[in-house]
Amino acid sequence: MSASGDSILAVVHATDVFVVVNKPSGLLSVPGKGADKQDCVASRVRAMFPHASGPMVVHRLDMDTSGLLVVALTAEAQRELSRQFEQREVEKAYVALVAGGPEREEGLIDLPMRTDIDNRPRQIIDFIFGKPSQTRYRVLERERGRTRVRFEPITGRSHQLRVHAAAAARVLRNDDVWVEGGLGCPILGDALYGEKASAPRLMLHASELTITDPATGRRESFAVEAEF
């Protein structure tokens, strides 16, 4: 699925200092390179909220991932929300449809990752040079030939959920020791780590988000169900 002017960016919650939106699959979070890649969440939010100032971007979702995204409307809010993400004070959860079925009903995936410098933007498992990457998961429903899974990323590496879902259930470390790996079940529609033709889009949705309101100090939780 590609970005389109017809894709709707729905506002879930808005205050004077930040806004939470439901990003559609196929829409960039921030502008890309080229005139054809300027349509994105940041530009649309700026158009909807003309008083927005300073750097707006707090975090990103992959273009093909849908779901909850928070955007700052002031420089002060951007700094505070960015700090919350950096300090892992933000709670996030995703829903995905994966191919096949994981062995276990729930668990923790702990596989270090780094960029594949020979094949960007792919990420790979690397026990020597990879950065710590952890994801909690829980099976929600086993369907015919596929499984609905809830993911809670502890860290926020690029493509983390996609790599952890696709990684083999047993992984050989550099010291030739086999350790518990990923689900061995790529997310449906994943062109990088699975098969794009397995679904009409990447079946990954940011469904839950909890942050602290920069203005009031109150914890605020948001939830949007996946369309799949």
Written description of the protein model:
This protein is mainly β and 228 residues long. The protein has two domains: 10-90 and 213-223, Pseudouridine synthase (2-Layer Sandwich); 94-198, Pseudouridine synthase. 12% of the residues lie in helices and 33% in strands. It contains three helices and 13 strands, in the order ββαβαββββββαββββ. The strands form three sheets. Strands 1, 2, 3, 4, 5, 8, 9, 12 and 13 form a nine-stranded mixed β-sheet that branches. A hairpin with a 6-residue loop joins strand 12 (204-212) and strand 13 (219-223). The two termini are 14 Å apart. The model is unreliable at 1-5 (pLDDT under 50).
CATH class of the largest domain: Alpha Beta
Order of helices and strands: EEHEHEEEEEEHEEEE
What is the CATH architecture annotation of the largest domain? 2-Layer Sandwich
Q: Per CATH, what is the topology of the largest domain?
A: Pseudouridine synthase
Uncertain stretches: 1-5
**Range of strand content:** 25-35%
Rg calculated over all Cα atoms: 18 Å
